[in-house]
Amino acid sequence: MEESSKKKRSSKKTTSNKSTNKSTNKSTSKMKRIETNLMFMRNFEDYFLEKNHMICDYNMVLKKPTMKELTWLCGDVMDSNIQGNLEEGNTFKFVILNSKKKIVAIITGYFEKGELVDISRCSKIPGGGEVLLYYSLLKFNTIHNTKYLHGYIAGAIPPIKKGDSSELIVEKEKILNDYHGKRGAKVFEHENGNRGFTYSYPDILDNCDILLNVGGLRLLEAKKVPLPSSE
């Protein structure tokens, strides 16, 4: 009886230790995830601050953009989508402002069922839209452990303009499809014919590493595409 009791106590102690270790490992993993997110977010913020640009929440924008300004920023297809989302109270909205506090990149979307959905974004600066895409998921992953980001491919690269031929529109849309595919997103077509994309959290981390550590953003600079600071 005494030997049996010792075994039971030993078994309970082992189970307790395993539970404690599991909890500690989970907590450590969470902290590492948050630290990684914050590091990438700060690096993106610092990159644009060096150029007198700022990543911020849309609530910090003092002058709301006009429809004309949104068309300049997003083209003739995405401008109305963005305008509608900006007027919604339950959307998330992040922007990049230039030195004159004018919006030069923007992203909007919804946080639903633990995921980011219905993403819309556009940018006048190299890497602006891509950075805001990753920045959004990093932000929500830090707070809610969000793992997926979904959106419709409604625009094109470069933005569609009035007067574009049907052939040119198809060409621009293909460039945008390829853009997402090359960055690890799952690109698909819905039953209604709309195109869509999905990024996972690991995809985003890989892309952040490429932009910041492998030199993706610096390569964009090397192409001599200036950030518009005076428009």
List the helices and strands and how they pair.
Blueprint: H1 2-49, E1 54-57, H2 67-87, E2 92-97, E3 103-112, E4 115-123, H3 128-144, E5 148-152, H4 166-182, E6 186-189, E7 195-200, H5 201-214, H6 216-222
Parallel strand pairs: 4-5
Antiparallel strand pairs: 1-2, 2-3, 3-4, 5-7, 6-7
Oligomer: single chain
Q: SSE string, helix = H, strand = E?
A: HEHEEEHEHEEHH
Q: What is the general shape?
A: globular
- The secondary-structure class comes to alpha+beta
Helix content: 40-55%
How much strand?
15-25%
Uncertain segments: 222-231
Strand order of the largest sheet: 1-2-3-4-5-7-6
Biggest sheet character: 7 strands, mixed
Could you say what the CATH architecture is?
A: 3-Layer(aba) Sandwich
CATH secondary-structure class: Alpha Beta
Could you explain the architecture of this structure?
By secondary structure, this protein is α+β, with helices and mostly antiparallel strands. It has helices at 2-49, 67-87, 128-144, 166-182, 201-214, 216-222; strands at residues 54-57, 92-97, 103-112, 115-123, 148-152, 186-189, 195-200. The chain has a single domain (2-222), classed as Aminopeptidase. A seven-stranded mixed sheet has the order 1-2-3-4-5-7-6. Strand 3 (103-112) and strand 4 (115-123) form a beta hairpin.
